[in-house]
Amino acid sequence: MPIVSISLNDEILSELDKLQTSMGFSGRSEAIRAGIRAFVSEEKQKADLAGNIHAILLVVHNDEFDHVVSGITHNFEDLITTHLHSKIEKEKCMELFLIDGDAEKVSIMTKDFQINKNMDTVKLVAL
User: Fold this and answer.
1) One domain, residues 58 and 21
2) What is the number of other CB atoms lying within 10 angstroms of the CB of residue 125?
């Protein structure tokens, strides 16, 4: 089996260790493999979307990055039917987008959030 080295900051490593323990993984590598399998499966599901779809996009971020969310949101106003913004912790915000439109464009919007390192959580649920 090939070996891939990754660098993790202390916060992510601590979270990984907690997940490893709580979910019963035998080690960090097994926990990381499970995360990668879930990520690959989710991306394959998104790749299969076609035509006009209805979806929910959830984004969690620090409030200091509201301007980043606004910038991305501006590019996809034609898809967004409803946008809810809520403060969920001290500095954390949750954005909930109800989306109706072309699957390819929805995928691009989702990727724009996913590749932005300032977003904590990005989750798309196609209905």
Assistant:
1) no
2) 10
- Quick check: 96 and 61 in contact, CB under 8 A? no
Classify residue 2: in a domain, yes or no: no
pLDDT for the residue numbered 127: 83
Query: Is 61 contained in some domain?
Result: yes
Q: How far is Cα 92 from Cα 81, in angstroms, rounded to an integer?
A: 23
Give Cβ neighbours of residue 6 (< 8 Å, ≥ 6 apart).
32
**pLDDT one-digit tens code per residue, 44-53:** 777 778 899 9
pTM of the model: 0.75
Q: How many domains does the chain have?
A: 2
Domain annotation covers residue 24: yes
> What totals of helices (H) and strands (E) does the chain contain, helices first?
4, 4
pLDDT along the chain (127 residues), means of 10: 88 91 93 89 81 95 95 97 94 96 94 95 91
Question: Which residues constitute the domain of residue 21?
Answer: 10-46
Q: Which of 114, 115, 96, 113 is nearest to 55 (CA)?
A: 96
